[in-house]
Amino acid sequence: MATTTRPKPKSVFPKIISTLWLLFLSGLAVFILYIYAVSVNFLNLFGDLPNMRTLENPKSALSSVLYSADNKELGKYFRENRTPIEFNDLPENFVHALMATEDIRFEEHSGIDPEAMARVAGSLMIGASKGGGSTITQQLAKNLFRTRGEELNNGYLNDKPGFRTLIHKTKEWIMAVKLEQSYTKQEIMTMYLNIFEFGSNAFGLQSAAKTFFGKNAKDLEVHESAVLVGLFKNPNYYSPKFNPENSKRRRNVVLSQMVKYGYMTQAEYDSLKDQDIALKYRVENQNVGLAPYFRTEASKFLLKWCRENGYDLYADGLKIYTTIDSRMQQYAEQAVEEHMKDRQKEFFAHWKGRNPWIDRQGREIPNFLQTAIKRTDRYRNLHRQFDGNQDSINFYLNKKIPMTVFTYDGEKEMMMSPLDSLRHYKHYLHTGFMAMEPQTGHIKAWVGGINYKHFKYDHVKQGARQPGSVFKPFLYTAAIENGYYPCYETLDTQVCIPLGDGTMWCPNNADNKFSGEKFTLRNAMAKSINSISAFLVNKLGAETLVKTAKRMGITTPLEANPSLALGVNDVTLYDMVGAYGTFVNSGTWVEPNFITRIEDKHGNVLHEFVPKTVDALSEETAYMMVHMLKAAAEPGGTAYYGLRHRNGLKNEIGGKTGTTQNYSDAWFMGITPDLVAGAWVGGDDRSIHFRTIALGQGNKLAMPIYGSFLQKVYADKSLERSKEPFPKPSTPLSVELDCSKYNNGIPVDSAQQDEFYQVPAPIDLDAF
Asked: Which CATH number does the domain housing residue 242 bear?
C-alpha cells in the first residue's frame, strides 16, 4: 500500500516578519513625513521653528561687565546674570560630571541618543522611570531657542491634549540635529553651560560659580562641580543654599556616576561623600560689591550711550572699562566707614533724648516726620491705594511690621512702623567722597554715601549742597587774575556791602570777632577769614566770581550776590573736585570722567572717550593758587594738625575746609601733585546737624576721611602715588611768593578803611 506524504505546513514567520517589516517601513515613512511636516509647519499645525539665521547666530542675554582701571570686575548690568565662558576655561571635572550624569554618549551621538530613547520607551512600556532621554544638545535646543515658549507654539495642534509635549520633543530633536551639523561638540557644550539657569539669578556656569562658591568656574573643585551639575535636574529643589540636604544627596549621585564611568575612583568618592557643602553664597546685585554708587551713576551715562548707539546695556555683553582704581576705591570706602561710624556714635550721644531736626533757633521742627514721609514712595502708594483717605493712610504708616534696618553693627530685624523707620534713618549723617587725577580727569574713587542698600541717594554727583568756605578759592583766583597776589595784605575788619534792595550785607567771621590785624591773602584764605572775602568780592564784583567758578567747571546755578563769596549756592562734589583739579593741572580744567572705552562681547572697541578740556587759568595763576592752598596744611592752617599729626602726612598738600551755616554741611578739599579729592558730610536734611562748631566743622567732620584715604593710598606701594613737591611753572613768576622778601612790608589797601560802612550788624552765621 502506497503511503502519501503530507506537505509541511508553511511557516508563518516569514509572513510575520514581512508584515512587521512593512509596518516598520510604513511607520518610518509616517515618522519621516511627520518630522518633515513639523519642520515646515505644515498647514500651521505645529507652530514655527527658529529660522536659519537664528540657528547660525543664536543669542542669549549677556551681562555687560564694568571693569576697573586695574582690570578688576566692579559689577554687572543684566536682566539675566550671565557672563560667557570659553571652553578652555571649563573645568575638566565639571565636563566629566555633566556627561556622567546627563549624557554619557555626548561625544558619540549626533544630537539624539537612540539608546537613551529606547531605554525611556522601554521604561514607559513597563510603567517604570529610568530617567530622561534628552541629550545635552537637545537640552541646549530647548533652552537656547525656547522651543516650549509661546512664540514657537502657535500651531493648531499645540493646544490639543496629547500633542503639545510630542511637538515640543520633535522640535527639540530637529534643532538638536541642526545644532550638531552647525557646531562642534566643544561649542555645543560651551553654549549649554553659558545659558543654563542655575537658580539664585545665576545664568551660566561662570555666574553660578561666583554666586555659590565665590570663585571663577575654572577654579571649581570636583565636589563643587558635582553640586552645580546636580542643579541641572531641578535648580530649586537641589539648591545648596535653600535645600542643602537635597543638594548633598544629589551631589553624591553625581559623584557616584563619575565613579561608574571611570572619572573618579571609589576611594575618592568615599573621601567626599560625607563632606558638607561649603558655600560662599552671594547673589550678585547692585547693592553689593565695590563702588555701588558709582556703578549706578555710570549706568545713567551708559544707558544714554546705548540708546544713541543701538545697544542693550542689559543683554549685549558689553565690556566697559572705567577709570576707577579698585585699590583706591577700597581705601576710600574703608576711610568713609571707619570715620562715619565714629562720628555717628558721637551724633547719637550729642542728640540723646532729643530729635536732631531743629530750626535756626534750636527748636525742634513741628511735624517734621509727617511732612518728610509725604515725600516717600510708601506714602504715595498708600495715597493711591486708599484714594487719599488720611485715616487709612495714617493707620498703615503707624502699623508695625517686620523690617530689616541699617545699623553700623550690621543689619537688624525689627518690628517698626514706616514712621518709626523714617525716624530711625533721619538720625544718620551722610557723606560723599571722590578722588580724581587732575591731569587726566580720571576718577579713581567714588563713594556716594554710607550704605547703598539702605541709602540710594548719591552725594557725589546727584546731590548738591552749600560749599561754604571751600568755594572761597574761586574768589581768591579771581583776585589774583585781577592784580592781587598772595602776599597782598588786608585788614580783618567788618565789611558791609549795600544790596540792591537797600539793605546791607555785613558778614561775621566764624568766631563773630574782628581782630583788626593785617593778613596776607594767603593767610586769610588759610584761616578762612570772612571779612577779607567780603572785601575781595566787593572789589571784584559778584559777577566776576560767578564767571571764574563757571570757567573752572561749576555747573550748578550761581547767583551774582556778594554772599556767594562765602559759598551759599549749592554745588556738587563732582564739580568741586574737577574745579580744584584746575589748580594742580597748570590751569587746564579737565572734565571729570569715568569711562575710558566700551567694547562689544568679542572685544571689538566700540567707542573710546576723550574728556573735554578748557584753558581756564594761566599757569602762573594756577601755581599761585596751589601755593595759597598749601597754607592750610602748614602751621596755623585749618588742616595742619589733622593731616600732619593725626594722619602723619609729610609731603606737600594743599587744602581747604568748609563749614556752612548752623554746621549743616562740612567739607574738605585736598590736592597733591597727582590726586585731587573732596569729602562732604551732613544730614539728610539741612536741619539735621551738630549744634556746635567744635563738632560740626569741616576739619572735624570731613577732613579725616581725606586724611585716612591718602594715608592708605601712600601705604600701598603698588599704587606709586607721588610724594614729590608740586611742580614749578615752566616760566619764572611775575611776583614774589616769599612775603619776607618784601623789604618795606606790604601796604594795606589805603582805601579799605574809607569805602566800607563800619556799622554794627546782628550775628549772621552765613556760610563760612
From this structure: 1.10.3810.10
